[in-house]
Design brief:
Length: 326
């Protein structure tokens, strides 16, 4: 399967610009693989001997929010060699209804599990394949370290030709840099919120509609993935966290933020603020009295962010580092 994530471009003003997001409005993987597939079986090997398995497929339990593509590697017998696993993810084909500059974007995460002592790392290349011309363009090349345990975004620029048929591919590899005899376990390299966004200037006539008039729930979700800015700061019973309304939303955002011990278990009060497009605002959350001791011990906290922009709505989760200050 191949996964790529694109930032949604929306109207920046009345009669200014329109945008399209591929494939099929962007791939959030919230309910399934959305047509992504792996054209070849994943592979894993231990050159010095041992047994490992690799699987490339849909992970419904993990993502931002839940749902992602994953290269899962399991070490079953380890004689001390360095392991390496490979897989390719590929999107369904789509036809560009317009040409011009586009942004290919995605979020990725490496979950090292109990193989952390092998210091695994993930590497991947995101490619845009032009089925019509037969040309493949490398858009993103990236390495994910063992310490990068939360989903974070990457993007790259590319150009589309109107009427051409395309697909997105991600060639993923997980490997270790330290050998350790007998250490068994599993690790996962995951990809989420993949989309390719292309915008073209349009003529303009008339009509109302602000920047968010064409913004869908999925596009807003993509735009808001990294809008909570870490680290969060905890002072006594209050937590300070910064939220941003991306300029590409095209209008002000109504943002509600709450700190969680885990999904479904609130640790703080909710705080709602209206934030102008392109601006950042600090929100102050109050820790629930009964959970103050638990929160004080945490080094990171999960935050739930509910956003409204025009008619679009989105809910995203972000895990941020907690800094304690007096």
């Amino acid at each position: 399967m191949t996964g790529l994530v694109g930032l949604a471009t929306v109207l920046l003003g009345a009669g200014a610009a329109s945008a399209a997001v591929y494939p099929a409005g962007g791939s959030g993987f919230n309910g399934g693989p959305e047509g992504w597939a792996s054209p070849q079986a994943a592979s894993c090997n231990l050159p010095l001997g041992g047994l490992c398995t690799a699987n490339a497929g849909y992970d419904g339990a993990n993502g931002n929010p839940a749902g992602s593509l994953a290269l899962d590697t399991s070490i079953l017998v380890n004689l001390g060699g360095l392991f390496k696993s490979n897989a390719t993810f590929e999107s369904p084909d789509f036809t560009a209804k317009e040409g011009g500059s586009a942004t290919l974007a995605l979020e990725r995460q490496l979950a090292s599990g109990n193989l952390l002592d092998l210091t695994p790392q993930g590497t991947y290349t995101a490619t845009l394949i032009d089925r019509t011309s037969g040309v493949a363009s490398t858009v993103i090349t990236d390495t994910v370290a063992a310490s990068e345990t939360t989903f974070s975004g990457k993007s790259g620029a590319v150009k589309l030709v109107e009427g051409h048929t395309y697909a997105i591919a991600i060639a993923a590899e997980t490997s270790s840099s330290v050998a350790n005899v007998g250490l068994l376990g599993s690790t996962s390299l995951r990809f989420d919120n993949v989309s390719l966004t292309v915008g073209t200037t349009g003529g303009g006539g008339g009509g109302g509609g602000g920047g968010s008039s064409s913004l869908t729930d999925k596009q807003l979700t993509t735009l808001m993935q990294n809008s909570l800015i870490g680290p969060a700061v905890i002072k006594g019973k209050r937590i300070f966290v910064k939220a941003k309304c991306p300029a590409k939303v095209g209008t002000a955002c109504k943002v509600t933020v709450q700190g969680l011990l885990k999904k479904g278990k609130p640790a703080t009060s909710k705080r709602t603020a209206k934030i102008a497009k392109g601006k950042t605002k600090q929100l102050v959350l109050k820790v629930k009295p009964k959970l103050k001791a638990k929160v004080a011990k945490k080094k990171r906290m999960l935050f739930k962010q509910t956003v409204k922009a025009g008619k679009a709505k989105a809910t995203v989760y972000k895990n941020l580092k907690l800094i304690k200050r007096r």
